[in-house]
Amino acid sequence: MDPSGYIDDETIIKRLIYKEKPDMRSLAQKCIELEKTDYSKVHASERDENIRTLHEELNSLEHMTEKQAVLHEMFVSEQDFHKKKQEELRKDIENCAKEIEGMKEELEMEKNVRANLLEYEAYAKNINTMPRCEETMELIEKVDEQHAEVCKIMEMKNEKLREVEMRCKNIVESIKDMIKEVEESVGSF
């Protein structure tokens, strides 16, 4: 204890811890002894000393009981506090687990979106390497023109072929006629 009358925390703790605790059994025995005592035969100073000692022990017991009640209340409130904290933590853990599951689903969705985007970009890159629509239409028109020319040439060739075929038929017919005439003239000799 310092001179200003202030009791430091360490001293209070030591007093609370090391203060002699009254024994209920010895206190009960003292009460029984005092009850049996014949006060007419006991000297006043001895009687006062016994009463003072009993009074101190009762005060000490009362103080200890109050301290135990305070400790009990503190323990119960601390226990309630920890139960509430434990429940809050359990709820927080459940919420975090739900959030994690939601984030996993979002991640999978984002992965799918990313994969689709990469696939789209690959298609777009492939499409961009192809000629433009106008160029394609021009090429188609050229091919159509070439096709028309080829068809025209084929028609002309087919016409010539038919003419040649007709000539060949005529020649074959003429040759047949000539062979007949030769056979007839040889046969008439």
From TrEMBL:
Compartments reported by the entry: Nucleus
Coiled coil: 86-113
Gene Ontology CC, one term: THO complex part of transcription export complex
InterPro entries: THOC7/Mft1
Keywords for the protein's UniProt record, in alphabetical order: Coiled coil, Nucleus
Main location: nucleus
GO biological process: mRNA processing
Name assigned to this protein: Uncharacterized protein
